[in-house]
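Regression report. Comparing outputs from two consecutive submissions.

Submission 1:
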Amino acid sequence: MTRDLHFVPAHELVELYERKLLSPVEATRAALDRIAAVNPRINAFVLIDEVGALEQARAAEARWRRGEPRGQLDGVPVTLKDQAMVQGWPSRRGSLVIGSDQPATADGPEAARLRADGTVFLGKTTTPENGWKGLTDSPLTGITRNPWNIELHAGGSSGGAAAALAAGIGALAVGGDGGGFIRIPASFCGVVGLKPSFGRVPVYPPNPFAQLIHIGPMARNVVDAALLLDVIAQPDPRDWLSLPADRRASHAGLDHGIRGLRVAYSPTLGTARVDRDVRAALDTAASRFVEFGAIVEGVDPPLGGVRDVFAILWAVGVARGIHGATDEQKAQMDPGLVELAAYGETIGVMEFLAAQAERSRIATDMARFFELFDLLLTPTTPIPAFSIEQQLADPDRDRWWFDWAPFSYPFNISHQPAITIPAGLTADGRPIGMQLVGPRWREDLVLRAAVAFEKSRPRLFRPPLD
């Protein structure tokens, strides 16, 4: 194999295993070597398990040698976000107040499915403290840097997962998305990230964020993301809101195209200020969809009031997450986390219930909107990745992280599937993400449309790390 083995897609790794042209041990060794080579520059991991990964890889190699793979991704190297519950590993969640001596005694739903499928666990990727914001820096691990330019943020909160993928570490990653936290870092780092419909992938342990958290796949291409979704999208009794298994395989029908589909194109959602290069890339993408045979119409979805609703629900969740922390513990936490939690503590019961009622209205309006359209096309973020010296894209205008990320959190409110895929680069070489949103439970539509666009991409997106 070539020196770029670490960039081989997951579905091609499986084909090579099947043809006995490559071993899971070789692929895993390449991934671990890549971690050693580039992770000191990007800081994407909070835990690396070289011994465990090689042990899993050897077991996968033996299964392939016998012609008895355990699953469709047997032997493929993956990473998991630090919030994931993985047997034998702690979940530090970016916090100094959570010790490393608290290993999980069981796998959470996503880890259990991956383990049953035979994937190889490389380690846990970084996150901001308690996964509270759209950037990945924390008191525990410091700053996770963007492989395209290490002076830029990788996005968050699945920033370690996105940075690792972009840098060629592992073929697949599992992230979590509470308001764009798969899609924002995937956009900033030039990879693919899918937030499935709420409940498609079970969540456990429970979280305090009012049914905003979605677990989903991240990859360097859409086919791999679909394959990973098939593995992790199975119900789990520990999550009473998890959906029944979808009989449609996510990776089936990806090449069916989108001719005749009705696509709403909203480059601003009515109010967002969008970077000129981002807008140009999205206008080009909309034109491509017309070429694919879709019916594209410029229209903004009915999302009035969504920012204020999300602010209340998110702040209350942040407050619940650190409720009971002592002043001494808070002094060790991310100051922004503590500040947003303090705001959340001021929100009364009636204000919170009113926000929940508004959420229901918005979700209903979006369901009606998707009776008229099959897909919604938007930027993933209105801006490309920005400097690690900043916590806000525009400190003069932004109050919280979600003020510079208006395209992502609305669809956590409405529980709809949304995918981001690379749509180009800015003039100075920063990735631009394109978002496709579909009706609830229609991951198949967003994946089909994403594949159609991905095939038309004029260039391979790989950061200039080497």
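Submission 2:
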Amino acid sequence: MIYFDNAATSFPKPASMVEAMVHYQQEIGASPGRSGHQLAVLAARLLYDAREMVAEMFHADDPLRVVFCLNVTEALNLALRGLLKPGDHVVTTSMEHNSVMRPLRDLEMGGVELSVVKCAPDGSLNLLDFEQAIRPNTTLFVVNRGSNVTGTIQPVREIGKIARNHNILLLTDEAQTAGAYPVDMLEDQIDLLAFTGHKALFGPMGTGGLIIGSRVPLNDWKPLKSGGTGSASEREYHPHFLPDMFESGTPNTIGIAGLLAGMRWIQECGIESIREHELSLIHHALAGLHEIPGITICASSDFENQLATFSFNVDGMLPSEVGERLDRDYGILCRVGLHCAPAAHHTVGTFPVGTVRFSMSAMNTRQEVDTALKAVKELAEEARRR
């Protein structure tokens, strides 16, 4: 079996991730911040260690400004629905995932103004077009650093400079890049960073978070939920300090134990080494696909601005058929369709049929790429004979 669906969820995970979750359940098991006994203290320590690791990995200045969520979707909703109000203007791109577009469209119906800047067919963004979309009431930029359809990487650092020059907040969706690409909140001038644990951070499902920069106002920010936090328990009003104001209820501590182990594994490997390995795979894969007649590729035109994710179609075969044949006949697992990003498919010209998506990770090998290229070549030859 060859697993090329890492943009959805990475697999396999490091053994240390599974071991950390088993250890937590067998040796700790208590709720952090809910009691003063030794197991609760150990659980709280683990939670804070994970905050510190997140802050270190993304160069955030305060671990207490790391808010854990169930996934990047919850993190994005927390930021968008909490910060934006009627009359605010948001600028985003046409390569966004529905985890950004759907909350923004909901808010648009409630009076938030929205500009979606059209990207090029390879998914790249023209910075001049982006800056020209700014209005006097623009309060927020929302940018998906790495596309889950084409793998195109956006120039976040340059967007951050534009945001600061105009006193606008920048929210980045790092679902595809966290763990696979160097991300620096300070250098990139990111104010809000949303990440998920179950993709390139090699954590389990049900983990993720939002990092909140010091420029972000908290006074008018309404949490998505309220309830028990283990702090200020004498009050019936929700606490208004980080991270408690956004972490109601018992956290997914066993999942965060796994996430911490996944991040430690990445730290041991080195993000730069992971990036170099994935670049070598993507260069080999795209070069091989370009040699196959009847293949249309959806990826960045610049290899250096490319994640280990790309899409393609086989002339004469629907993506659904290609995906089914790859799975059934070759044991290659990938994803087909619109990938929860219809705006991106409109941009690259593959709506409504969608594409076949290959997404690789640090766990994949060049030999697996060769096997996949041979399979795609055989399917393309079969399609031409029809």
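Expected: both submissions complete independently.
Actual: both completed, but the second showed a warning that disappeared on reload.
Relevant detail on submission 2: The chain has a mean pLDDT of 97.
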